[in-house]
Amino acid sequence: MKKIKALSIFLICFFCLSTVVVAKEIDYVLDEGKRIPIPLTYEVKKVIKNLGEAGFMNHPEGLFIDSEGFIYIADTENHRILKISKEGEVQQVFTEAEGKSFHNPKGVFVDEDGVIWIGDTGNLRIATLYPDGRDRKVYVKPDSPLLENDFTFDPSKIYVNSTGYIYALKGTNLLSMDEQNHFRGFIGAKEVGFNLTRTLIRVFGTKSQKDRTLKQNPDSYTNFIIANDGMIYGTVGNAKDGGQIRKLNSVGKNTYPDEFYGEKTYDQHGILREPNFVDITVADNGIISVLERNLGKVYQYDQEGNLLTVFGGIGEHKGVFQIPSSIATDQEGNIYVLDYNANTLQMFEPTHFIKLIHQAVTL
Description:
With 363 residues, the protein is mostly beta strands. It has helices at 2-16, 196-204, 207-214, 352-361, and strands at residues 28-31, 34-37, 42-48, 62-65, 71-75, 80-84, 90-94, 96-97, 100-101, 107-110, 116-120, 125-129, 135-139, 155-160, 166-170, 173-177, 183-186, 221-226, 232-236, 245-248, 265-266, 272-273, 277-282, 288-292, 297-301, 307-312, 324-329, 335-339, 344-350. The protein has four helices and 29 strands. Helix 1 (2-16) runs antiparallel to helix 4 (352-361). The termini are close together.
């Protein structure tokens, strides 16, 4: 099935290559690491920067789009949460919960009831507000023997599933809690495989050898989302051998193809750089788009791990980014990218070409 879908993508690309136009950044796919140009897949339709009386954003880090199409932004260093329309008009500004001002909030989520969940990172809490801004509840570090005394609860990203379980990204750990603020465990940790040498060092090695061994940690999550299919999709930051995209089932097992995603590149000093995926979004049709910071690219995949398009880049003009920080998709398939450094939100609309690709891989 994967080969059939890949062939469909190839045929569509082949018949449409004549429409490729010269541009500063050309969309492409990868064939054994080589970039193959393809027709334009997404066009910038809007750049939101000036928010009128609300001023400008300041290093925003979190983005969410609710079922009605309203956009929520964690305007991190302005210590506030913005609710704006697709046209960029500010609807509401949230700055506090339970009488305490937000401090460097990095994540925001809105549930089906319109309750706003805020990763109030600097205040070491998850704050929740009703749609009109009234206080609902605050969640702090759970009291659990499974959490060390020095464990700091500074959640950056939050999602709540259909059963009411709260999922939060704390540092590089993905953890779950219930409505009563009880810790329910860490999610999606990829086990470090057995290694005889490492085991012997832990038993008989010197202190320095043991310290080096302890630094070999499981993979670290950089972001996650709970999609409409109820699955947790996440990006992993230090998976050098592949598997940077995860799709976790109800027991935390990865069901997404364990392949290498993105591109390895070299910096100006000739040092190899692994892909640095910082966020992920999943459209209603199951199409996955991940945001990569080093190149400023959006890599888009289907449910079988096929690369559909790569677009974006680093720069200061429309369609590229300075430091991309978050990505989201609305119900029409438009993609939104938040820029930490440019303090902008860009909206990308899918072209007819990429819509054909999506139809081919979601049949």
